[in-house]
């Protein structure tokens, strides 16, 4: 963290505070931020004032809490249209969701994690972690592994070093070696599974999305529960899933997306 602050200076510190407010997922008090932040009280307060004045944060006088500001909402909408796969993928997701009746996730890689940029709920919705706008671990999700399997060696090395390898379930891959072995299989077969690796009872089949030059730009998954289907059942949907991923990649070929990092 110290190296990042030295390199990125004031902007980096301000973004760090925005991340803290966003991660709370609710309005948050100054005292709570002070506990989580590495900044002194006066420095934190100064940054909060500046971010509020600039519309990046909103302050509720009655509750004395901070939340993300409307300026961020405008920026988020612009980013969704300019840098996200979601607008390009939308008609393909709609079609696949209608055919399968299951939950679909569209994700991109973001600094070692997966960012869910769009989602379609199943005909009978199931509560699960993944939701549009959320970030999740890459090493134990189908979309994360599908993307990592097709990364260039230098990007993959960095991505591997960014994983926490926490054991969420009994099937979670908890080492870089185990993950690399799985990624080799995924690359050979062209798709990935989530075998209840992040959440008990949640399984998926995922496919990478490639654009020009075979560059991986995201992934799509069909997700369900072990009460509804087995991995063998999901495998029956693989041809349609792969076709959808190919169609999204073809439509995205003329679009400019951020390079995976």
Give the topology.
Layout: H1 2-24, E1 28-29, H2 30-36, H3 41-53, E2 57-60, E3 65-68, H4 70-82, H5 86-100, E4 103-110, E5 113-120, E6 135-137, H6 142-148, H7 153-161, H8 176-189, E7 192-195, E8 202-211, E9 215-225, H9 231-235, H10 238-252
Antiparallel strand pairs: 1-3, 2-3, 4-5, 4-9, 5-6, 7-8, 8-9
Features:
alpha+beta; 10 helices; three-stranded antiparallel β-sheet; Arc Repressor Mutant, subunit A; 2 domains; Beta-Lactamase; six-stranded antiparallel β-sheet; 261 residues
**CATH architecture assignment of the largest domain:** 2-Layer Sandwich
| Average pLDDT over all residues | 90
CATH class category of the largest domain: Alpha Beta
List low-pLDDT spans: 1-6
Label the overall shape. globular
Percent in strands: 15-25%
- Please report the total strand number as a whole number: 9
Structure annotation, total helices: 10
The major pleated sheet works out as: 6 strands, antiparallel
Class of secondary structure makeup: alpha+beta
General description of the model:
This protein is an alpha+beta fold. It folds into two domains: 73 residues, Winged helix-like DNA-binding domain superfamily/Winged helix DNA-binding domain (Arc Repressor Mutant, subunit A, Orthogonal Bundle); 170 residues, Beta-Lactamase, CATH 3.30.450.40. Helix content is 46%, strand content 21%. It is built from ten helices and nine strands. The strands form two sheets. It has a six-stranded antiparallel sheet with strand order 6-5-4-9-8-7, sandwiched between helices. The chain has a three-stranded antiparallel sheet with strand order 1-3-2. Strand 2 and strand 3 form a beta hairpin. Helix 5 packs antiparallel against helix 10. It starts with a helix and ends in a 9-residue tail after the last helix.
């Amino acid at each position: 963290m110290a190296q990042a602050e030295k390199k990125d200076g004031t902007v980096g510190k301000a973004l760090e505070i925005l991340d803290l407010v966003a991660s709370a997922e609710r309005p948050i008090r100054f005292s709570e931020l002070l506990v989580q932040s590495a900044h002194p009280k006066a420095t934190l307060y100064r940054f909060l004032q500046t971010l509020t004045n600039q519309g990046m944060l909103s302050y509720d006088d009655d509750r004395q809490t901070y939340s993300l500001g409307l300026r961020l909402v405008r920026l988020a909408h612009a980013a969704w249209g300019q840098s996200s796969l979601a607008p390009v993928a939308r008609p393909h997701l709609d079609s696949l969701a209608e055919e399968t009746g299951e939950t679909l996730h569209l994700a991109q890689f973001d600094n070692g994690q997966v960012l869910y940029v769009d989602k379609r709920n199943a005909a009978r919705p199931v509560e699960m972690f993944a939701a549009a706008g959320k970030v999740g671990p890459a090493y134990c999700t189908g979309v994360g592994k599908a993307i990592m399997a097709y990364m260039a060696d230098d990007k993959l090395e960095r991505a591997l070093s960014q994983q926490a390898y926490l054991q969420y379930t009994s099937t979670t891959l908890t080492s870089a070696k185990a993950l690399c072995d799985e990624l080799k299989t995924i690359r050979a077969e062209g798709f990935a599974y989530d075998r209840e690796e992040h959440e008990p009872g949640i399984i998926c089949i995922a496919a990478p999305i490639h654009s020009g030059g075979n560059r991986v730009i995201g992934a799509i998954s069909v997700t369900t529960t072990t009460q509804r289907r087995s991995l063998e059942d999901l495998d029956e949907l693989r041809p349609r899933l792969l076709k959808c991923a190919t169609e999204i990649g073809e439509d995205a070929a003329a679009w400019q997306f951020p390079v995976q990092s």
